[in-house]
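Page 47, continued from p. 46.
Same chain as before, 463 aa.
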Amino acid sequence: MIDAALIESLKALVEPGKVLTDADSLETYGKDWTKHFAPAPSAIVFPKTAEEVQAIVRWANAHRVALVPSGGRTGLSAAAVAAHGEVVVAFDHMNQILDFDVYDRTVVCQPGVVTEQLQAFAEEKGFYYPVDFASAGSSQIGGNIGTNAGGIKVIRYGMTRNWVAGLKVVTGTGELLELNKGLMKNATGYDLRHLFIGAEGTLGFVVEATMRLERQPTNLTALVLGTPDFDSIMPVLHAFQDKLDLTAFEFFSDKAMAKVLARGDVPAPFDTPCPFYALLEFEATTEERADQALATFEHCVNEGWVVDGVMSQSEQQLQNLWRLREDISETIAHWTPYKNDISVTVSKVPAFLRDIDAIVGKHYPDFEIIWFGHIGDGNLHLNILKPDHLSKDEFFDKCKIVNKWVFETVEKYNGSISAEHGVGMTKRDYLTYSRSEAEIAYMKAIKSAFDPNGIMNPGKVFA
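Result:
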């Protein structure tokens, strides 16, 4: 922990009242959604300008104080956890939309702009910001960029990286860099912008982002399809992709849906029980396109890939079908789940899931597994629920053993140990399962170039 004199010198860099040291604030801002690490920051500082961020970073260099960025704190990898006396730099007050250009289809945001805020602004202007996920109401653009957030629309629109036209960043030395300047075409050497996307604040802090927008989708329509087994989901994906431009293709298990339905908030899509479900979405821009979706559904039924299904006929029904998928994380939080966010190429998903299921089932038959994910892009969410008879610490210790087996399987399939939640502290010790020693060495060299004193979110991504 840093001493009182240092905290007083930090207070001089920002507006009055923008440095907090009370216990509640340290607890709140020192953690994210992970429950593995106890927060223990020294102070929370709230800059309002890029210049204040620069001053904070220079102060931290002068006094060798570690800094941790904090956005909406919805992360699941402990990338925003301050567990060792760091100063948390919270971007809640850098939350303005600064500019909009209708011709370039871009919006200039401060890092504290909430994802849903940007989505609403885009809609108001007749456009669409397509990066979307369950935490859109609290996650911030700076955090999305730091983790290269994905979500439910990646199959059509890609990750956050695809939508970042330009960045202003403060590096680990306190220097302000303007990267790419919103250009569509820029062939002038290294594009440093992409180093900061997904870097989890380890190279520097985003202080401004120019984000691209898209046209608004038309008449979004969803189908929920029940399948007799997991292997059937892949030919269903292929059949629909062959006929329609899908905006989403999600899956979840019967156990996942049962948890959501038990709350009584949304109705079951149909009465036929199925072990797995696929949710797909497309733009029903014409009657012919909707007919094509129904014809493809009938084809899948005739092939034995689909047992039953329903297609949304209203906006309310569309929302209800999506809630079957999007309410899963919130619903299972009651059971203190151990989460893994992993990915393989789409073609390998069925074999990969079977291997993981067998591993956990063999060694821990009393663990309930909840599967769901963005299967259209190969991203699976493995959630292991804590049995009542185990304490949280006992459960997480057992899951660490599971982790090794899971990541060995990820390595076997040339997959990623973190598809969209980042590395942080929860995955850093397993990075070698997805990255070679040479890659990690180059990553550390890049870190040293931008942050020679190692003050920017240390201990995240790698030790």
